[in-house]
Amino acid sequence: MLTRSTVKEVFGKNIRIERIIDRQSGNAVIVPMDHGISVGPIPGLIDMKRTVGDVVEGGATAVLMHKGLVPQGHRTTGHDVGLILHLSASTDIGVSSNSKVLVATVEEALKLGADAVSMHINVGAETEPQMLEDLGMVSRQCSEWGMPLIVMAYPRGPRIKDSFDPDAVAHAARVAMELGADVVKCSYTGDIDSFREVVRGAMVPVVIAGGPKMDSDMDILNMVHDSLEAGGRGVSMGRNIFQHRNVKGIMSAVSDIVLHGASVEEAAERLG
Q: Is 154 a catalytic residue?
């Protein structure tokens, strides 16, 4: 039986998630900017107000970042954009980069004005048990506060031979959903048929990661288009957006496909 408190929590999640997911299309265009902890101050993540402004003008529905970056990227002009606070972290120069630890809380996210929180788990890592325990705890807190939870779930670890293997990707996505994710972010598996099975198994909206920076704009746009054909609900792309030579252009092209149903060819016109 739903209590009055439970109804409020569910309603709170629904209100907040509409700031992340476009109402008309039901899809999301998220730009993660959490790379600074992993790899340092890379190009595209220095002048944060400019980068945030460019992706918002290009049609992003939300940006994602760590707590210390929020005031650096907050603008007082232009269109509003959803804010997702990332709660977990590790560095690439550490001895266990696949081990994500909690560095922020749901309560901090609320105080910073976030519309959702996110966590990263590596299914198959040596510290998988701790990451799963942390996810379960954060999921419980999100339910209590009515805060949407996005989970980045990847198969990574000593026994993972191919992190893009469809069965492994589907397993990681399913783990995220079963532990309470409202939206799952995962790798695109390379073709429509295999990714359709990932989406079916996840049962909640799935958005694709951009992965390492690509050389071809058409590769980016085709991947986005095909993921939607498979039932995906959008993208969460970082370096392929904020490190692009034309940030507004590539963001507009991706947004046209995800939010407005444009073809790859139509979207490519945004790039000149």
A: yes
Would residue 131 be called left, alpha or beta, if left means φ above 0 and alpha means ψ between -120 and 50 degrees?
A: alpha
pLDDT tens profile 225-271? 999 999 999 999 999 999 999 999 999 999 999 999 999 999 999 89
Per-residue pLDDT tens over the stretch 153-205: 999 999 999 999 999 999 999 999 999 999 999 999 999 999 999 999 999 99
From the candidates 34, 54, 115, 256, give the one annotated as an active-site residue: 34
Which one is catalytic: 13, 22, 185, 188? Answer: 185
Secondary structure of the chain in HEC code, one letter for each residue: CCCHHHHHHHHHHHHHHCCCCCCCCCCEEEEECCHHHHHCCCCCCCCHHHHHHHHHHCCCCEEEECHHHHHHHCCCCCCCCEEEEECEECCCCCCCCCCCEECCCHHHHHHCCCCEEEEEEEECCCCHHHHHHHHHHHHHHHHHHCCCEEEEEEECCCCCCCCCCHHHHHHHHHHHHHCCCCEEEECCCCCHHHHHHHHHHHCCCEEEECCCCCCCHHHHHHHHHHHHHCCCCEEECCHHHHCCCCHHHHHHHHHHHHHHCCCHHHHHHHHC
Higher pLDDT, 203 or 214: 203
Beta strand pairing call for 183-186 and 149-155 = parallel
pLDDT tens digits along 75-111: 888 889 999 999 999 999 999 999 999 999 999 999 9
- Residue in 154, 182, 188, 217 annotated catalytic: 154
Q: Which domains does the chain have, with CATH numbers?
A: 4-271 (3.20.20.70)
User: 43: pLDDT confidence band, cut at 50, 70 and 90?
Assistant: very high
